[in-house]
Every structure is written in C-alpha cells, then in structure tokens.
C-alpha cells in the first residue's frame, strides 16, 4: 500500500517569501499548500489535512500565535515550525514552549535546517497518526476502553456505546451481576465530551434507605442526627461529569420520585437546605433485575424508567458469548500478572475447554476470580487444571459452582445411605477427572491416601459381592 504524501501548510503574509517556500518544499517531495494569515489557514484546514505547519508569527488579521492557540484549544494542532524575524526570538521561544510548537527558525531561513525540521516533524505526525489508527482498529477488533470481546453480541454493545457516548442522552444498562455494567458506564464516560470531568458511581443496593438521599443529594450541617458538617452529594461531586446509579431498582420509591425531579430540573437541594443548586450531570443507570418484573412489582417507577430509558444497552451473560473466552482470559491474565508480579502466558487447552463447558453464573466477575487464584497458583507459564479452585465444576448445595459436567452429575433417590452417596460422588469425580486421582482428591477435599483407601474398600466389597453371586 503506497504511503500517503506528507502535507505541509505554509502560513506567511509575504507573497515573495510564501511562494518560493512552497516551491522548495514541493521539490523535497512534500505537498505544500499556502495561506496568507492565520484566518485563511483555519479556513484551509477545514478541507486540507496538514501533517506539518510552517508559520510566520507576525501577520495581519490573525497572527501565528493566535492560530496555534486556536488549534491547540481544539486539540487539532499538528507539529508546527515557527518562522521569526530577529527581535521576535523571545516570543518564538515562548510560543514553542507554551503552545507546544515543534521548533522555531530565524529568518532568513536556512533550507537545510528547515528540511531537517520538517522531516522530524513529519515523523512525529505520522507516529501520532499511526497510534490513533491502531487505537481505532483495536476498538473494532475487540477492545473498547477496559472491555474486550470479539463476539457479535459484544461488537453490537461496542457499536451502541460509540453511538451514544458523544450525546447527552441518559442510558440504562441491563444485565446479570458480573457482566460488566460499570465498565460500560465508564466506557461511555471516557468516550464522551465529559471525559475530563469526574465519574461517580453509587450502588443503590448497598446503602440503607436513611442514607440514600444524603448520598445522592447531600446535606447541610444539622439536617439530621449525626450531620455534623455540610456534605456534597453525588450529583454535586459529579458536576460536569457522569453519575452511575447502579442497581437502580433497589432504590426506595420515595427517593426515586425525588431523583426524577432532579433529572427533569437539573437542580438539587441538599437535605436541610433552602436553596437549590444547578447541576450539569449525565446520569447512567444500571440494574440486574428483569425490567418488566421490576415495573410490575412497583420496585421501579414507570416515570423514572421512561426518563432514564432513552438508550438501553443490554449486556449478554458470559454463557451466551463463550467465543470471547480466549480474549477475555488473555486480557485478564495480563492484568493479573501486573497485579501479582506473575509471568503466566495463558491457559492450557484443557482449561479452555473446561471454561467453554461451564455456565459461568457469576459471569466475567467469576472468571476473573477463578483466574486470579489460578495465576497466583501457576506463577508462570500456563494455567493448568490443577491450578483451578478445587470445587470448580462441583455442585455445592443448591448453587451450581460449575455445570461443566452435567452428564456426570450425581442423582440420588430418597433413601440412599450416606455411604452409598459418598461412593457415588467419589466415582463420578474420578470419571470427571479421567481417573486422575490426585485431582479427584483435591476436588473432594480429602487426602490422596483416603481416596486410595476408599477405592480399596469399594473394590473389596465388589469382589465379595461377585463371589457371593457366583456361590449362589
């Protein structure tokens, strides 16, 4: 693929200098465009993508300093080389320092020096452009902010996030616990114009009702017993940023009504306060509840639901996007290696197959917990089955810690003795581990010696039964 030409914009009010400069830069193999002052340069940049700007400082209408100030404020300034006459060197140095211009040259210009600086500036511009291209490519290849996923389900989620992030619209994120609802909210914040502001999250299910309103709206000193000083609420703390209301359906109905008013008026009043405070906050809500059920039971007010449900993002559970397991494991292991100073490369094929057969009731959060233990146990190289938690794939009580080996599950009729149940569990665990007795003992929580004794006991019993049957 042919490399695109490097575009150089020359901003110079003296035509006698501007045109020869453009011809010389063209002769060096670049594509030069010209502008007579800063104002014309801005107009030209709307249709001309410059990799490097070569600009004079002193010009009519808009000088070089104001031009670069405007471009820097818009976050759209390519490397700039400032041309200056004798007597303006101090200003040129300040411009180079304060606005991040690439360098400055005194007039009359030395062609060799200018060519060298353009080459260096062009290299920097290409590097920045390539970095941005790779970041965009990563977003479309399975990475967005702190989330990863190449499955069609997650690519759909990423697409919606990219669409809604630049807007001011409220967003409602729904999904089971552990699917990454807060990560979605943070991604929306990071990709929005509010990314320079705060991101504040509050879990509505983890807070007593008596403290909920104080946390959301703040309180004045003496508003209630224990209010020893004025305190700003989450809305104030998230000013010009984003507020995530996690587990929204667990919020008391009365607080939901007050929240609705804040959302409609963009004004909040602290508990015990007399004055209202204007707030500029984007609100994102999340819930793991079934929305129809929450609305029917009255746990979620309909008017609040419609106010927040401008954009709904539904996160699929991990069991519905098992194709993402390889990239998820890679990303999580990289993160956990840094956290625990380990050097694990990946998971073994056997572990990956086990992961793909598992239902993951705790979703990505559970996957991270399983991998965290495994990474610590492995230390380096590859995660093996022996590094997984001993109860991975075993039913505990009514909660299925794992549903990997459903065909090998133990079903016991009423009246089964404890000894018979113990034997059935040991034998099916051995079947599950493909007769790996060390792994079976670990899963069962018994010593290897105990396991061998049990098997010896079962073998003797079976031999006795066979002998008795033959004698009969």
Helicity, as a percent range: 40-55%
- What is the total domain count? 3
Provide the structure class: alpha/beta
The first-to-last residue Cα distance is 86 Å
Content of β-strand: 15-25%
Shape: flat
Structure overview:
The structure is a single chain. The protein is α/β, with parallel strands linked by helices. The chain has three domains: 7-137, Response regulator (Rossmann fold), CATH 3.40.50; 148-316, P-loop containing nucleotide triphosphate hydrolases (Rossmann fold), CATH 3.40.50; 405-472, Homeodomain-like (Arc Repressor Mutant, subunit A). The chain has helices at residues 15-27, 38-45, 64-73, 89-98, 111-140, 152-164, 181-190, 209-217, 234-237, 253-265, 291-297, 302-308, 325-340, 349-357, 363-378, 418-432, 437-444, 448-471, and strands spanning 7-11, 31-35, 52-56, 80-84, 103-106, 143-144, 147-148, 171-174, 199-203, 218-219, 231-232, 242-246, 267-268, 277-278, 282-287, 311-314, 343-347, 380-383, 395-396, 399-400. The strands form seven sheets. It has a five-stranded parallel sheet, sandwiched between helices. Strand 6 and strand 7 (147-148) form a beta hairpin. Helix 2 (38-45) packs parallel to helix 3 and helix 16 (418-432) packs across helix 17. The longest helix has 30 residues, at 111-140. The chain is flat and about 105 Å long. The termini are far apart. The model is unreliable at 394-408 (pLDDT under 50).
